[in-house]
């Protein structure tokens, strides 16, 4: 049979032996070795494929390319290290067509992902396994505004797999001085929609989940438990206390930041290691602390603080470095000073203290003396 | 039925422990359905979540099988964070090699590793006895 096939080959073509591994043998007439011909690897494979159409389907994908899990060898050298399909073959050469043996606990990085995230992956603190952790992570951003924007963008660029966005607002022209998720053409558009478009334009791999609603006591415990880490970009005290309490009850790490004028603050709350109420047991009287809309805010500083939040989230996901847990970072943009003060869990904290009195979500509008922002925004967009 | 025996089982567990927290992988050569040699392979993914038998080592193994009259009996790999059961990725990628058994070593409980064997055919998983379940 082999001899007969050889006779069919053109006189000028070089006979080459192809080793057929067990999974492919029934596709190749149960032969261990097939003699075929061609002047290059591509020609040999074409001849082989013409002889055995079922084998051709295993060697080539629907686009006529050799898939990544099929290795072609010429004299025990993989053709990628030679000249690929153009590798010349000569009389007496031995080729082999071997499917890889592979598997694993989670999905593989595609070559495009390896390239996209290469500047992260080459760092030993990230590596391929860290990149997969990022891709499996689910992060919720409260507010698609000044803080939530840069936080969401850098998390998306890092390849965080799922990013939830809570916002009810529409894009206003006055947002564009600092809110990088939205552009001129987005004015009047829902912020959630604009955010999703921007995020996916940067990285289409991110699953952007939209929660187009004000966060309230009624929905917080439905939304927050769906995520691993919560980023607080809320612009008002009512939402800030609600997010603090809901994240604590859901056992979620909260990466918090706030900003006004030229000043910013950031910290990380891990349940049981202090919370916003340990830092600020009660909200200020309504009207005492102005909002960004009332007092103003440096746009560039929202980028600094939002990026710090993204950095803290990435560190939490990767389990690297020292987080801002039990520390409050205070940024003075005018003096350009970064200071860190220690925080500690307050044993008398009504939420996370030894004898808590807040054991479920409360009436935050009554507690703060201000309604949740709705169509008429009480707090300014941060 | 894939009779593993204490020696083969012990060699695979030792390999998994040495590579922990990364996944290990290797190949079992057999004669008459019984393992005769455990061949450790390099995991070219070098990963906690993925394995790929080094391609050149696989080629050499296949040649060794032909030269020595061995059968390619089984592929083994470790799961460090999940049970000794094929993952969806394992099943998807097993389509290229339907004939060998797939042996999983789980180190979820480091003090009590679990070894189980499967056939993966057309995306279907069926467990096969290893002859020494009592000591599993």
Overall description:
The complex is a heterodimer of chains A (382) and B (136). Chain A folds into two domains: 2-99, Beta-grasp domain (Ubiquitin-like (UB roll)); 137-368, Rossmann fold (3-Layer(aba) Sandwich), CATH 3.40.50. In chain A, helix 8 (148-157) runs parallel beside helix 9 (191-202) and helix 8 (148-157) packs across helix 14. Chain A has helices at 2-8, 22-25, 41-51, 53-59, 111-116, 118-121, 127-136, 148-157, 191-202, 220-223, 237-250, 276-279, 292-295, 299-318, 364-368; strands spanning 15-19, 33-37, 70-74, 77-78, 94-99, 102-104, 138-142, 162-166, 207-211, 229-232, 253-260, 263-269, 327-332, 337-342. Chain A is an alpha/beta fold. The longest helix of chain A has 20 residues, at 299-318. In chain A, strand 13 (327-332) and strand 14 (337-342) form a beta hairpin. Chain B is of the alpha+beta class and 136 residues long. Chain B has one domain: Cytidine Deaminase, domain 2, CATH 3.40.140. Chain B has helices at residues 5-19, 55-68, 88-93; strands at 25-31, 34-41, 50-52, 71-79, 101-106, 114-121, 124-128. Chain B has a six-stranded mixed β-sheet with strand order 2-1-4-5-6-7. The radius of gyration of chain B is 14 Å and the shape is globular. Chain B starts with a helix and ends in an 8-residue tail after the last strand. The model of chain B has no long low-confidence stretch (mean pLDDT 89). At the A-B interface, strand 5, strand 6 and helix 7 of A face strand 3, helix 2, strand 4 and helix 3 of B. Strand 6 of chain A pairs antiparallel with strand 3 (50-52) of chain B.
